[in-house]
Request: fold
Amino acid sequence: MSKETAAVTTAAPLLELRQVVKLFGGVHALEGIDLTVGPGEIVAVVGDNGAGKSTLMKIISGLQPADGGEIRFDGKTVELRRPVDSTALGIETVYQDLALCDNLDTVQNLFLGREETSSLLRGARLRRADMEHRAQETIRRLGAKIPSLRTPVGRLSGGQRQSIAVCRSTLSNPRLVLMDEPTAALGVEQSTGVLDLIRRLRTEHGCAIVLISHALRDVLEVADRIVVLRLGNKVAEFDNSDRTTSSDQLVAAITGISAP
Amino acid sequence: MTTSNQSPAAVAATSSPPPVARVEGRQSRRRQMLDAIAGRYRFVPVVLMLAVIWAFFTAQDSAFMGNRNITNLLVQIVVTATIALGIVFVLLLAEIDLSVAANSGAAAALTAILVVNHSWPAWLGLLAGIAAGAVIGLIQGAVVTQFGVPSFVVTLGAQLMLLGAILVLLPGGTGQVSLFGTGIATLSSTYLPPALGWALTAAGIVAFVLLRLLALGESRRRGIDMSLVREVVAPGILVGAASVTAVAVLNSYLGVPLPVVILFALLIVFSYITTQTRFGLHLYAVGANPDAARRAGIPVARAKMIAFSLAGALAALGGILAASRLLGVSASSGTGTVLLESIAAAVIGGTSLFGGRGSVWDALLGALVIGSISNGLDLIGAETVVKYVAEGSILVLAATVDSILTRGSVFARATK
Reply:
């Protein structure tokens, strides 16, 4: 089925899924998926609703363990049963709902759950200035545009909020960033900004990116390789390293109907 | 988009306007004001309301602003403010505790019986009462977090159980325990010598300014521009002027009452915890978006259980302070308007019913509003009916303001 498989990964793969299966009751959400992601590679996963994209994402991020198959990271077999299992390996996830607290400002959101504090003897105070400084650096390096780091993020635009979520994922120097529909809620201009951010993430941090998206145009623009899922199966894989895949090809693979 | 073959959901997702785009660009002045009032300047309307109330009662009776009445007012609000402080914690987490008043009565009954009937030293009885309150809060928090029962039901049930417990604890026959002549009673009858009052005030103001300066210095060393006036001078003058005025008035009568000192010590400690520490920040995060907090690795259930036990402990302390002032406990301890006034104080002070927004100082401000109305109406000899109607309407007004701020401001999406 995977006629266009031209994915020749030269380096040893960073993440490798072999025949991964996920069942919900008697329903096969994923029926034996193979997926490889090389270091520094941007791989997009596309498909219609119910194709299994979200399930695949939840398996890699550790939110829902797989029911069968093998997952290898850095050549070693790993068990991803909880989100911490994935983060411990250096897999960060940018959720579709962004998981931001609207009442907190950018700095507080960036460091949420991993705040730096002074010692108990020195009052266990949040090291606000240090965190703000690091936040500034991260945001500058990724070229994100945030008007003020001290504004509650509820006041920021969708694109800015998405940027904060992406910046947050880089703070732990991850090796793989998983993004769930990063442009779904954004307008054209904001989407462009987020796509720039994704490219920078690769060049600045050298991390691999798995992009789960409905937005075919965005996918064609940034992905090195595009994996198409349909009804829990991988039905096609396109090498897009030269950005020549056409949206007609993708649509045909997603729907299973050949382009006229 | 690229194709018409996309699913309807995808089309809807990509073509619908971004949820916050309307905030961008021409941000209306009204929204900016709402944001400011919902955020950093939430205390301003409350202080204005307080000023109006004070002006009204002073016009009715000039004794209202006298040093004797101000001392009375502050002593009267300590109980409400202490219990409301605990309520602020549970409200921050978008929960509610309706058992605090009954908890305060039960803890006071326990302390009174230990001290009077079992001859425990007052301090030990006090600690036992507070510990009991904390455990009662913790159990309720555990039921809420472990079984997912809505907190208003759990705490409503607990309220009834605790009211029953008070009846069991109190001796049959009289149904009351007198604290006259015990160490618990001296809590309320103790006033600080003026010099000590001034020394504590000075220490508090210096600590406040130093902490602000420290934060400013740290930021500037990191190249972050922060305004000296906005961050240090203005808040310093505000806090300094308010506390110096209050202490001057109190010292011109009998001195600073010990319960007031206890209340301010609590406010300062909890203010530090909520604004300067990791745990405090996590309270706000959990209250605004528990899913995000959980995914960020914050122990959500633990934060909630701590908040419920804090509410229990503070309610117990409030109850014991009330018993100390009334010189005893009876079946009516922890009943009446205690519950309504404590929750009202937190909400009137500016803590949101929807979670994630508020400050420990709201407990003080709200208790001052409620206490001033009650005190003023007593002073001018108004009937109880007037008091109930006035307090009830202020609560509804405050909750309405909270809802408007929550819907109209940046915090709208935090509570979807």
